[in-house]
Amino acid sequence: MALVAGMRVGSRVLFRPWAWLPGAALGRKESAARGRVGARGFGSQRVLVEPDPAAGIAVMKLKSPPVNSLSLELLTEFVISLEKLENDKTFRGIILTSDCPGVFSAGLDLMEMCGKNPAHYAEYWKAVQELWLRLYLSNLVLIAAINGACPAGGCLISLTCDYRVLADNPKYVIGLNETLLGIVAPFWFKDTLVNTIGHRTSERALQLGILFPPAEALQVGMVDKVVPEDQVQSTALSVMAQWLSIPDHARQLTKNMMRKATADRLVKQRDSDIQNFVGFISRDSIQKSLQVYLGKLRQKKG
Ligand SMILES: CCCCCC/C=C/CC(=O)SCCNC(=O)CCNC(=O)[C@H](O)C(C)(C)COP(=O)(O)OP(=O)(O)OC[C@H]1O[C@@H](n2cnc3c(N)ncnc32)[C@H](O)[C@@H]1OP(=O)(O)O
Prior knowledge:
Number of domains: 1
Radius of gyration: 18 Å
CATH superfamily: 2-enoyl-CoA Hydratase, Chain A, domain 1
CATH architecture: Alpha-Beta Complex
Shape: globular
Mean pLDDT: 90
Helix content: 40-55%
Largest sheet: 7 strands, mixed
Structural class: alpha/beta
Distance between the termini: 35 Å
Bound molecules: ligand LOW37U6P
CATH class: Alpha Beta
Oligomer: single chain
Number of strands: 12
CATH topology: 2-enoyl-CoA Hydratase, Chain A, domain 1
Strand content: 15-25%
Strand order of the largest sheet: 3-4-5-6-8-10-12
């Protein structure tokens, strides 16, 4: 997919992965009206959206089997669905969950970071940045209903949400395990974690690449609630009701006050962050580490 037009929102120039889609040239109002979500489900191949307009919420399900790894396609479809809901005033909250049994998301797609050229790495990283910025600064209430394993980029996505409910299953570990792959979480992954669980716990978790099982994840504050697996969705819904009882403008301004400085750090240095990623991921030693890790994942089966 070609890299693409930018759109200015406040001081941010946003990536428009959908710029090539029919209707992309429409004005914002017109396209929002045409794209109004309504009561019927919508979505794309990899992102299912089940709207409940009466309640003002939508359930967004990642559906990219087997493990919801964040490919360029999934990132793009994710941003498009998010934008659609953000632009429709009916919606005040999203419950984010997985349609893949046992896995919330396996994080960034290792195939996007192995054996490709620098232009591809740059395009991919820009899409990762874009999803994070949009989720982290979303005006909507985002609740993660974590119904499976949640490593690395999967964990990052859940950390952008306002609240995390995790299913109580020892296989459903969560954390930023990048060091285990021989790679380093960038500063904005780290900042998101520090803002959630504090500096000291983040330092230990990041260096050791800890994947926390549910009880420990709850104890360190990585998640807000651990419930039996069959109660994840209903718990997310009742938490959502509580968050939606707060007037939107006050909650949104407060969220922005808490998060803007963190997001601005990336906004100010997006290009250098991309260059840093491309340089790092292109190194032979890093490519070898990733190949070894992929090999171990594949061997695990055999
Ligand atoms: C300045 C530089 C900064 C660089 C920063 C880069 C940041 C990176 C952040 C990341 O997100 S890196 C990705 C880290 N992810 C992981 O470590 C998770 C790896 N996966 C797993 O641990 C397991 O797959 C799982 C999620 C626990 C699920 O286990 P399950 O037993 O259900 O499935 P598997 O048999 O392991 O996997 C099925 C299938 O999927 C492939 N796969 C798994 N994860 C990924 C992935 N992240 N990307 C691409 N492909 C993945 C796996 O290899 C299997 O493939 P196969 O062909 O069927 O063997």
